[in-house]
User: Fold this.
Amino acid sequence: MRRIVLAYRHAFHAGNHADVLKHVVLLQVLRHMALKDKGFRIIDTHAGGGCYALDSPQARKKGEFAEGIGRLWSRRDAPAPVADYLQQVRALNPDGVLRRYPGSPWLAQSLLRPQDQLRLFELHPTEFRDLQSTFGNCRGVEVRQADGFAALKAQLPPPTRRGLVLIDPSYEGHADYRHVLAALRDALQRFAGGTYLVWYPVVTKPGAADLLRGLKALAPGSWLHARLAVQRTDAQGFGLAGSGLFVLNPPHTLHGQLQPALPWLREALAQHEGASALLEQHAA
Assistant:
C-alpha cells in the first residue's frame, strides 16, 4: 500500500504564480471544450478546498498570492487568456477588493453547463470539508473524499466520451512523481482520446527532472508544454522556482493563445532578472 501525504493544504499557497499559470491554461481548455454542444466530464483529482479566503491566517502566513494574483489584480493590459482569467477572479470579488481566490473547482463549476459533469476528489479532511460545503449541492457536481489517483480509474471513460482530467497533486511526497505517470498510463489505456492537464512544480526534488521526460514518452499523440519560472530558490536550491503544465491532446487553439500570454506573465510575475517562459508543442 502506498503512503499518502496529508500534510499539504493548498490554502497556504492559493493565488501564487503557479496557480496563475495553471488557471490561465485550464480556463482556455474548458472554453474550447464547451464550444461543442455535447457534454463532457471534468475530473479534478486533487481538488483542494475549491475557493480560498486570502485574508485567512493560512493565506497570509507566507502571502504567496501577493507575488501571483496580487501582481495582476490591477492590470488592464493583459492578453486575452490572462484577461479572461482575471475576469473570473474579479467576478468572485465584485467590490473590487481582492479577498477571495477561485481554485480549479470554482473555475470549472462556473463554466459548467447542464449537460456537463464535474467530479472533485480530495483526501485531506479539512480541504474536503471546505470543498463539500461549497460544491456539495451544486447541480452536476460530485464531491468525494478519496485518493484522486485511485478514484480516476472508475471515472474513465466518461459516458459521452468527452473528458478533461486535471492532475495536480502536491508533490510533497517524492512518490507523487511516479504516481502521476502510473495514473496517466492507466488513464490513457481506458480513455486515450481525453484531454489531460498535468501540473508540476519546478523544484529540485528527486523525480522532478524525470517527470517531464516520462510525460512526453507516455503521450500517444499531440501534446503541449508550458512552463513559467519566476522566483529564485533559496541558497540550498529549494523553493518553488516556477511551474509547468503538460497537456495531452490539447485544443488546437491553445498554443496560439499562450504565445502572447506566457511572455507577458513572465514579465509581470518575474521576481528576478533570470525569469523564463517556455512553450513547446508536438503535433500527432
